[in-house]
Design goal:
mainly alpha; two-stranded antiparallel sheet; 14 helices
Length: 297
């Protein structure tokens, strides 16, 4: 008896794409939902061959069904990304072209930090779009360093193989050659280590840690371009940039009670005044919470 396609898809993501357990579970769940929906929608069994004729109208119907379950814009866009990945897997090397469908747009408003689920979704979306597994691992590691450790993109690009093997902290060289020590979350460390294992060009101490597709130093422009494409697919606003991940790192820490002086050290700011902008951002967030939740607001 042939094994279910969603299960084969999950095994492919875990084994060949080395996606996180969270991503594997989420994508497999989407594949299961899509197959069940199409079975009802078409009134027939959903085979690998049948998935090759999924149309834009079918995808619109599926998303409408999911939005009826209360799916928010970012989650709906991520769901669409998982659907595309599943259809691409089902089609194999010679599969039919995946129907194009623009993801839902997120309402524009006052600039705000990227929410934690948006930051993780963005990093995983960029990785999922990479053409090779080692590049996917590289992009995920870079973006998690920005969000999980507060690095500037230039600081991440400036890391060399000398930082290996990784420990619980990382020494970073920032602006004007100033160095600082930042803690590494286990998820961030695992992402970087996964990239190191996969990188086909080695990680010599005197050479840049993150490499381009041809083995040269990775350009920040490559990451920025990938983020622009991913945020469009996820329906995130233009403010969603690599640097915004660093801003979000700072704002989320402050919101959890981090001391301004400690935050200054983590970010590598020369003066406390540079760090104090995050108090205004956090105050704006608290005001939003008050207006939305207080019965007298």
């Amino acid at each position: 008896m042939e094994r279910p396609l969603p299960l084969l898809f999950a095994e492919h993501l875990a084994r060949d794409r080395r996606r996180s357990a969270h991503t594997v579970r989420a994508y497999e769940a989407t594949a299961v939902r899509l197959v069940a929906f199409l079975g009802r929608h078409w009134g027939e069994a959903v085979t690998r061959a049948a998935l090759g004729r999924v149309s834009t109208a079918d995808l619109r119907a599926y998303l409408a069904h999911r939005r009826g379950d209360g799916l928010a814009n970012v989650s709906a866009a991520r769901e669409l990304s998982a659907v595309r990945a599943f259809l691409k897997f089902a089609g194999g090397e010679d599969g039919a072209e995946i129907p194009h469908l623009r993801g839902p747009r997120v309402k524009k408003g006052v600039p705000r930090p990227i929410a934690p689920d948006e930051a993780v979704a963005l990093a995983e979306e960029v990785a999922d779009d990479a053409r090779e597994p080692w590049i996917a691992a590289r992009d995920l590691a870079v973006l998690l360093l920005l969000y999980g450790a507060g690095l500037r993109i230039g600081e991440a690009m400036g890391l060399t193989g000398a930082v290996l093997p990784l420990g619980e902290t990382l020494r970073v060289t920032g602006k004007r050659g100033k160095t600082r020590i930042v803690p590494l979350l286990p998820q961030v460390r695992e992402a970087v280590e996964d990239y190191v294992r996969r990188c086909p060009y080695g990680t010599a101490p005197g050479e840049q840690l993150f490499r381009g597709a041809r083995g040269g130093p990775l350009s920040p422009a490559i990451i920025r371009r990938s983020v622009r494409a991913a945020r469009t697919r996820l329906g995130l606003p233009p403010r969603t940039t690599p640097h915004a991940l660093r801003h979000s790192f700072a704002t989320h820490l402050l919101g959890r009670g981090a001391d301004l002086r400690a935050l200054q050290e983590l970010l590598g700011h020369a003066s406390l005044s540079s760090t104090q902008i995050y108090t205004a951002v956090d105050a704006a967030h608290l005001l939003d919470v008050y207006r939305n939740a207080h019965p007298r607001a």
